[in-house]
Amino acid sequence: MRAIWKGAIAFGLVNVPVKVYSATEDHDISLHQVHNTDGGRIRYQRRCEVCGEVVDYSDIEKAFEEDGRTVVLSKDELKSIPAENSHEIEVVQFVPSEQLEPMMFEKSYYLEPDSKSPKAYVLLRRALEDTDRVAVVQFALREKTRLGALRIKDDVLVLQSLLWPDEVREASFPSLEADIRISAQERDMSAALVESMAADFDPTSFTDEYQVQLRQLIDAKLEQGESLDTEETFGVEAGEGGKGEVIDLMEALKRSLDRKRGGGEAATASRDSDDEADTGGGEAEAAKPARKASGTRAASSKAAAKTGTDDAQPASAKSTAAKSTAARSTAAKSTASKSAATKSADKPAAKTTRARKPA
Questions:
Q1: Mind listing the pLDDT tens digit for each residue in 98-156?
Q2: DSSP assignment, residue 200?
Q3: Domains: count for the chain
Q4: For 271-327, how does the pLDDT look when each residue is reduced to its tens digit (9 = 90+)?
Q5: What top-level branch of life does the organism fall under (predicted)?
Q6: What is the per-residue pLDDT for 226?
Q7: For the chain, how big is the Rg over CA atoms in Å?
Q8: Is 339 inside any structural domain?
Q9: Angle between helices 249-260 and 264-292 (to 10 degrees)
Q10: Which of 128, 122, 123, 125 is nearest to 97 (CA)?
Q11: Are the CB atoms for 150 and 159 separated by under 8 Å?
């Protein structure tokens, strides 16, 4: 690592000389822009809009415009600002760590002792350990006065720059002002889902999938050239992804719990059973009009039609349909019997006798 800055922590009247290093780095694969017709590299030039000339970086100054007036500030004038010349990290407070808003954290830096004896460095570190507090500091870095938090990580002092309060936006969403009612059952199920996913955080167990897949795409393109098939490379269609909105919150919670508890198959079987029950209920409703038809002939016709349909249904549906058909047949016979009894009461005995002869 290369130190980006040198200074000293001002801890009361104690000075702790340190070197500052960036504690983080970008692991993203670097891509550049090219012309899509010939592959030529795209370069950006600093061109003056007045004279049209390409300007070297050394000839560029900074400026501020207000009310139509422009103020040009030279490099020497900017360096004359007192805060810019300060190489002091001033400790201003020691506060409990929970009082720092995580959203304010910006960038992290390692601090290395920069003196023959690291005693003052170790003393400050011990003070933070013994009091279990974080040091709030102020310092200037890269043309900006910054607020920071000084804490310990693996026996090393870490400086974390903080955003100023006016740099953190206030969240205001009218949709959250509505009175949303959450049932006790929904809260219990969401708590159970949280518990089923509870674990100790281990950052090494996570992977930047986009960078892995980007590397996979680059390797495949190097091997296959323009004949690259992205669907074959990744096994899915390009741009495919779940974007569905959750409609039934309770159902989504139930399925999530089933999946985490390994009960996905049981849940599927339960839903299939419910679907079959719904189908059976629909058949019973459809059978009601058939009961109004007079005579065994109508009932027999309905039963025959139902039997023909059963051949295309699964075994569970056939069983349900068979029960439904038997029920309709019984009901139809009962209706036909009542109808025949009524007719025989109204007609003469001779006609009744002929009606009872077997066919």
A1: 999 999 999 999 999 998 889 999 999 999 999 999 999 999 888 888 999 999 999 99
A2: -
A3: 2
A4: 554 555 444 444 444 444 444 444 444 444 444 444 444 444 444 444 444 444 444
A5: Bacteria
A6: 87
A7: 40
A8: yes
A9: 130
A10: 128
A11: yes
Q: How far from 307 is each of 258, 259, 317, 329, 332, CA to CA, in Å?
A: 37, 39, 12, 12, 16
Report which of residues 179 and 109 the model is more confident about.
109
Residues recorded for the chain: 359
Is residue 185 assigned to a domain? Answer: no
Phi and psi at 163, nearest 5°, equal -75, 150
Nearest residue to 92 via CA among 143, 163, 148, 161: 148
* Close Cβ partners of 37 (under 8 Å, ≥ 6 residues apart): none
Instruction: Name the DSSP letter for residue 116.
Output: S
Q: Are 128 and 135 in contact (CB under 8 A)?
A: yes
Q: Is 150 inside a domain boundary? A: yes
Q: Are 74 and 63 in contact (CB under 8 A)?
A: no
Assigned domain for 141 exists:
yes
User: What residue numbers bound the domain in which 138 lies?
Assistant: 5-25+65-166
> How much is the mean pLDDT over the chain?
78
